Amino acid sequence: MADRIMIALDNVSKIYGSGQHAITALKDVNLHVPQGDIHGVIGLSGAGKSTLIRCVNLLERPTTGHVSVDDQELTALDRATLNRARHGIGMIFQHFNLLTSRTVFDNVALPLELMRMDKNTIRERVQPLLDLTGLADKADSYPAELSGGQKQRVAIARALASRPKVLLCDEATSALDPQTTSSILGLLEDINRRLGLTILLITHEMEVVKSICHRVSLISDGELVEEAEVGDFFTSPRTHLARRFINDFLEIEPPQSLLDHLQNDPTPGSHPVLRLAYSGDEISTPLISRLARACDIDISILEAKVESIRHRTLGLMIAELVGPPEKTREALAYLEDHDLTVEVLGHVRRHD
Ligand SMILES: Nc1ncnc2c1ncn2[C@@H]1O[C@H](COP(=O)(O)OP(=O)(O)OP(=O)(O)O)[C@@H](O)[C@H]1O
C-alpha cells in the first residue's frame, strides 16, 4: 500500500509585493510528505525555506497552488474552518516565541485555553507533555529562568498540546549550541516515533538533516531542485549545490599549499589530484590498494573522511595519483568502473 500523504504542496508559488518590487519566493513547488516521515528542507539563506514552511499552515498564503494537510485542502477553507484545521498542525520557531509573563505550565496550556478547554482537561493534557519534554520540575518557572534548550522544549510541549498530526519546525535548533541541538533533535525523533507525528523542518544545517531526517529536499531560489532519501542525498547528490553542502559539511578541501600549486591542465611531470566519493559497499573493499596494484601507480592520500549516515557509509578522499600519464589514465577509468564519484580537481607537479 502506498504511504498516506500527510502534507501536500501542489504547484505552490509565492510572490511578495507586485509590479517592479515583486519578489518570487517560491516557484511551482511540489512536495508530498508521507505520514510519520521526518522531512527536511535545506537551502541557503534567502532560498525560500521560511516561506515554504509558513505556506503549510497558511501563515503565508500561496499566490497560486494548493496546500493540503491530512487530506484537507487548507487553501480552500474559510477562516473559521482553517483555524480549526490549524489545531492539527503544531509549529516551533528559532526564537521559541514564548510568552514571558506566563509560567512554563501556562505557556503550554495557552493553545488549550484558546480552544476553551476546561481547567481539569488542560491539566490532564499539559502534565504528560511536561513529562515527555523533560520539564516536569519546571512547570512554575518563567521563560527568563530557562536555558535556550529548555525554552525550545516548552515550545515543543506547547506545539503538541492540541495533539497535532503534523509538526512544523522553522530553524528550531539554529539558536542553540551543538550539544543542546542534539538533545532537541533527539526529542523530536522520540516524539516522531512515539506519537507517529509527521515532521517537516527547514534548516540550513546538514547536521540536522543527517541526524533525524528520513528524506530531504534542497531549495534554491524558490525552487525544489533535488529530493532524496537522506542516505542517497549524502552519497549520490545530483546537483552542484547539494555537493557544495556536503563538502562544506564534511569539510574536505585540498590543503591550501596544494591549491596554490594546482593547474587546470596536465603538464609534463604533473599528476592528477582527485576528489573521490564512495558509498555503501565499496568501503569494505580495499579499493585503493587494489587500484595501486592493478594500475601500478602510487596513491598519495591528502585528506580523507568517513561518515555514517542513516546506516550507510560515505567516504570522501582527496588523493594524488602518482605515475606515468598512461597509468594514471588507466587508474581513473578503473575508479569510474567501480562506481566511485571521481572529480579531477587539477594537476600538480611534485617537487620530490
Ligand atoms: N514578507 C516579505 N515581504 C517581501 N519579501 C519577502 C518577505 N519574506 C521573505 N521575502 C523574500 O523572499 C525570499 C525568500 O525568503 P525566505 O525568508 O523564505 O528565505 P529563507 O530561505 O528562509 O532565508 P533565511 O534562511 O535567511 O531565513 C527572500 O528574497 C526574501 O527577501
Automatic annotation (TrEMBL):
Q: ABC transporter domain: from which residue to which, for each copy?
A: 7-246
**Which GO molecular function annotations are given, in alphabetical order?**
ATP binding; ATP hydrolysis activity
Which keywords appear in this protein's UniProt record, sorted alphabetically? Amino-acid transport, ATP-binding, Cell membrane, Membrane, Nucleotide-binding, Translocase, Transport
Identify the main location.
Answer: membrane
Q: Does the keyword Transport apply?
A: yes
Query: How does it sit in the bilayer?
Result: Peripheral membrane protein
Name of the protein described by the UniProt record: D-methionine transport system ATP-binding protein
The biological processes this protein is annotated with in GO are: amino acid transport
Q: Tell me which stretches of the chain form a coiled coil.
A: none
UniProt cross-references to PANTHER family, sorted A to Z: AMINO ACID IMPORT ATP-BINDING PROTEIN, METHIONINE IMPORT ATP-BINDING PROTEIN METN
Which superkingdom is the protein from? Bacteria
Annotated Gene Ontology cellular component terms: plasma membrane
- Bilayer-crossing residues are none
Compartments annotated for it: namely: Cell inner membrane
